[in-house]
Predict the structure.
Amino acid sequence: MSEELQSLLDRIQADGVAKAEARAAEIVSEAERKAAGIVSAAEKKAAETLAKAEADAATFGRRAGESLRQAARDVVRSVREDVQETCTRLLRADVKAALSGDGLAAVVEAVAKASAAEDAGAELRVPPDAAAKVAAHAKARLAAELAKGLRIAPDADVSAGVRVLVKDGRVEHDFTDGAIVEALSRVVRPELAKVAFG
């Protein structure tokens, strides 16, 4: 009987070991399946996160590029405006200096002679602070033109130069610093822009 018992015990043990090994294999298989699912889900999530990060980076790059291009345009425009303002300021100072003192007297004389030849009774408007000097110069050098009705009058709107008005009071010729600077600016600014901005 002990052999039978031993045989029975060996069989029970073999069956228990077989069942335990089968159960262990099932547990390992289930764990591997779950692990594969977790790894797959993690890989999918990582791929989604990477795709979103790449899309966000591309969007940021586009926006940064657009912002940079806009900033560059703003800088160029600002520099262009500053250069133009500086050019205008320098032109205005040079023209104003040229249209004062003897320069103004020479301009008034040339304009007076041309205006008197074209239209008797023209009026030359000059800066108020230069009116007395210009009138004295005119009496000495422009007697014939004054005799034809040419008048010289101060004008608070004229800071330098001369403005010619005809009989009905309309401006016929404008040789003031503002008009000359405007005309020169139309010529100088484009050339300056070509040199500065190619």
Notes: The mean pLDDT is 79. The first strand starts at residue 123 and ends at 126. Residues 97 and 103 are 8 Å apart (CA to CA). The chain has two domains: 1-98, 100-197.
